[in-house]
């Protein structure tokens, strides 16, 4: 890719950055309750707080008061979601620096690791705010190809598969 597109710059996709705290939250939840218990509550922890209604937020807050480690991970995740609601490259740069500093001083190791990851990918993360590019279209096309192949129970001819994907509707 670098040979074909020497001026291309890597942009860290918003979706993938926001998913970084997910494994740590799920692992912490498993260590508290085991494999399956409280799975619905843990899934609520992964959603953005803005998308939850009042009663769900109250349930989560009540649950997190009993588990300080999980609470710290959840608050770090919410700060990351809040960071992506920032408008403008300058504000985003200042917000990311502040976020990295907060994560560096956290007591939970997973939050400190998240801070190190953000510091390593700082330039690529900030490029998102400059251009607002995501790989959503690429993901949608891959999903469409998989759906066409699944519906067709497999295609023997690649040419037929290619024509079917090109004629499929996205929405």
Element string (H = helix, E = strand): HHHHHHHHHH
- Summed over residues and divided by their number, the pLDDT gives a mean of 87
Structural class: mainly alpha
Oligomer, anyone? single chain
What percentage of the residues does DSSP assign to strands (E)? under 5%
Number of strands: 0
Instruction: Report how far apart the termini are.
Output: 30 Å
Counting DSSP H or I runs of 4 or more residues, the number of helices is 10
Largest sheet: none
Radius of gyration: 20 Å
Shape: globular
Unreliably modeled segments: none
The amount of helix comes to 55-70%
Description of the structure:
The chain is mainly alpha-helical and 171 residues long. The protein is 68% helix and 0% strand. The radius of gyration is 20 Å and the shape is globular.
